[in-house]
Amino acid sequence: MAKEEYSPLMSVDPADAEERGENLPPGPATPRFSWMSRFSNVSRTCLVGIFAVETIALLAAIILLVMKPPHRVTTCTIHPKSHEVLYSPALDAVEHEVRVYNVGFEGDLSPFQIPSSPALDQAWSNLYNFGISRITKEEAARLPNKTHAIPGDDGHYIAELDVFHNLHCLNKVRMALDPDYYPDWRISTTNNHIPSQKNATDHVGHCIDWIRQSLMCSSDTSVIVWQWHRALNTSIVKGNVAHTCRKFDKIQQWAKDRMLLETYDPTVHIEDDIVVPIFHNDFD
């Protein structure tokens, strides 16, 4: 379809043409257009007035918007200072140390880089198999999100430190990378969707994105460097650098001391008087 072009309305006021000395095309006598000329002048006056009012209104709106304080979109109702953190019952267990990571290549492997085996499974399990904790009601009342009471354990509430969920997730991703040894964790690929593997695929997908968010949240600012390698005559990445870390064994011990030993029944609802207005969310 041909593009329509804009064409201005071609109308000539005979009075204006006469003043300019232009010749009018053959047509009715000039007096026929005298009332139209007056109407046109009135219309132009009205349009100018309307345009002026709209311009003033627009300018006033712009001034109000400029003077109005900016609206900030937030996801919570508190604004902690840079040195403040949200409450966690494990804050007292936090102690920092300097650690150097294993690079993870031949010559600098970690104990977790052995082939899939019962020994490796046990090593991973030992990192987080105590991660579900029982905390006191007083501790639960200070959380930024409300948690549930433990049935049959008056005065205690269920909780889990996020680090142990992260380790659980990373372990599942590890298992999915070796589906011959862990067939239950074989996931579907882009061109090979298998319905029976949906649970593992969804779980691993959740875990990868949870770890991504956790890494971005933690944002380790330790600096990886490049150093000159004389033998290779080039600079190479040096990954085994110092990091400021929270002592993991301290956090482990905190969780082990509060490990939930009894089976938790999520079908039992317990009412309480804890009110957590910040970040409160539920399924009501």
Task: Walk me through this protein's architecture.
Belongs to the ustYa family. One of its GO terms (biological process) is mycotoxin biosynthetic process. Keywords: Membrane, Transmembrane, Transmembrane helix. Pfam families: UstYa (PF11807). The protein has 284 residues and is α+β, with helices and mostly antiparallel strands. The chain contains seven helices and six strands. The protein has helices at 14-20, 34-67, 118-128, 137-141, 162-176, 198-218, 248-257; strands spanning 96-100, 132-136, 156-160, 225-229, 234-238, 242-246. The strands form three sheets. It has a two-stranded antiparallel ribbon with strand order 1-6. A hairpin with a 4-residue loop joins strand 4 and strand 5 (234-238). 7% of the residues are buried. Residues 1-37 and 61-78 have low confidence and may be disordered.
Helix content bin: 25-40%
| N-to-C order of helices and strands | HHEHEHEHHEEEH
Strand content: 5-15%
Query: How many strand segments?
Result: 6
Based on helices, strands and strand pairing, what is the structural class? alpha+beta
Shape: globular
Residue-averaged pLDDT: 80
Given as residue ranges, the uncertain stretches (5+ residues, pLDDT < 50) are 1-37, 61-78
Strand order of the largest sheet: 1-6
User: Which oligomeric form is depicted?
Assistant: single chain
**Helix count?**
7
| Rg (CA only) | 36 Å
Please give the largest β-sheet.
2 strands, antiparallel
Distance between the termini: 56 Å
